[in-house]
Design goal:
- The structure holds two protein chains of two kinds.
- Chain A is an alpha+beta fold.
- Chain A has three helices and five strands, in the order ββββαααβ.
- In chain A, β2 and β3 form a beta hairpin.
- Chain B is α+β, with helices and mostly antiparallel strands.
- Helices cover about 20% and strands about 35% of the residues of chain B.
- In chain B, strands 9, 10, 11, 12, 13, 14, 15, 16 and 17 form a nine-stranded mixed beta sheet that branches. Chain B has an eight-stranded mixed beta sheet with strand order 1-2-3-8-7-6-5-4, with helices on one face.
- The chains are: A alpha+beta, B alpha+beta.
- Chains A and B meet through β2 and β3 of A and α3 and α4 of B.
Chain lengths: ~90, ~300
């Protein structure tokens, strides 16, 4: 899968968010808040094909975390991206 | 060439020699100014608009209460077509900082007779577009003032913004309405935030050239009981964003400016969510909470 990098990460009141506008109706707008790890992953994976394994590798290289835990976190993160429609499969 | 000052931004309306003079509409009269100096922008009302044949980056259609609009976004300009009593076009190019923007429209060109909806919408769009880089946003809301501070009631159409401000007027002493539809908010040099009356006030028709600091933003929703809570920052941003002009949210440049101004607005002033009935107790609850007269559980 790939990130929809046409969405820009913006700083709002010191926090990082993605503002996803609806196509025609303004009611469709959603705001996705990214914590520092999430934002770091977003930067690392821009324009790259990735899966849960690759995300887990990035996490274990950067943070003190076992591969199993990282893989669980990676799956959760990808699940969040899917729900927010921020990835193309 | 009449000049206006709305939220301390000066603009002028210009007409060519061929144009019959038109009286200044009632809602703009309180904003006439004799102030000199360069305006921020001018709108030439009887321009000839040449057709543009290249593909726009984006096209966006939306409804007015009596008519509809098409916005075409090009790399160098925004073009708005307004249809109600006939059709008119408004062309707003991007300009360098410090340059006086000149916007052109055929609203009053020969053979065109716009109604007030078209005129108001064209100027509202031109104003919002020109002032956007100057930490200024038109916020769809109904605004009340008490003791020199304002409360801005936000919400989708039909949630009862005007009803809630009317309930303040009827039940809370010393309250006045500043605007009932499209007031202007500015973030000033020192980071403080003020709300200003404007010529755009919807059915409420309050055209006051006044301003005051803001005590709180109040996002309304209908509910079977009254309940108020203060929103965290990102939730505040989410509460305010839908109340900015949808036409300026369609593209990165203008959305960037909206986001950065909103970001400062929500840091400076608290946002509350009020789920409410249309009753006096709802006004009492928002008043006592925002003005700090009760503990905020």
């Amino acid at each position: 899968m790939k990130l929809k990098t046409n969405y820009k990460v913006r700083k709002i009141a010191g926090e990082s968010v993605i503002v996803r506008m609806g196509t025609q109706s303004v009611n469709m707008t959603s705001i996705i808040s990214l914590n520092p790890t999430s934002e770091w992953l977003w930067e690392q994976l821009a324009d790259e094909e990735f899966d849960a394994e690759k995300v887990a590798d990035l996490l274990t290289a950067e943070y003190e975390v076992s591969h199993d835990v990282a893989l669980l976190d990676a799956a959760k993160w990808i699940d969040m991206l899917r729900k927010a429609e921020l990835v193309v499969e | 060439m009449p000049r206006f000052s709305v939220a301390d931004h000066i603009f002028e309306l210009a007409m060519g020699a061929m144009c019959r003079p038109v009286p200044v509409p009632r809602n703009f009269r309180p904003f006439l100014t004799a102030e000199q100096g360069e305006p921020l922008f001018r709108v030439v009302l009887d321009s000839e608009i040449e057709a543009r044949t290249d593909e726009p980056l984006k096209v966006f259609y939306y409804d007015l209460q009596v008519g509809d609009c098409t916005l075409r976004i090009y790399p160098d300009e925004y073009r708005l077509t307004i249809r109600s009593a006939g059709e008119a076009e408004l062309v707003c190019p991007f300009v360098e900082e410090g340059e006086v923007a000149t916007y052109r429209t055929n609203l009053l060109a020969e053979g065109h007779k716009p109604n007030s909806v078209m005129f108001d919408h064209a100027l509202c769009f031109a104003y919002s577009f020109a002032t956007l880089p100057h930490k200024t946003l038109l916020i769809h809301s109904s605004v009340i003032m008490k003791e020199g501070r304002a409360v801005m009631c936000l919400g989708e159409s039909g949630t009862g913004k005007s009803t809630h401000t009317r309930l303040w007027l009827e039940n809370i002493e010393g309250t006045e309405r500043l605007n009932d539809d499209g007031p202007v908010v500015r973030v000033l040099e020192d980071g403080s935030v003020r709300v200003y009356g404007s010529p755009w006030s919807g059915k409420g028709a309050v055209y006051r050239n006044e301003s005051c600091p803001i005590a709180g933003y109040l996002r309304l929703s209908q509910a079977p009981e009254n309940r108020i809570s203060r929103l965290a920052r990102i939730a505040s941003f989410g509460a305010l964003l839908p109340s900015t002009l949808p036409t300026l949210q369609k593209e990165e440049r203008t959305l960037d400016q909206i986001c950065s101004t909103l970001s400062e607005m929500i840091v400076a002033v608290p946002t509350y969510a009020l789920a409410c009935l249309p009753d006096a107790a709802a006004a009492e609850l928002s008043y006592t909470t925002i003005f700090g007269l009760r503990s905020n559980e």
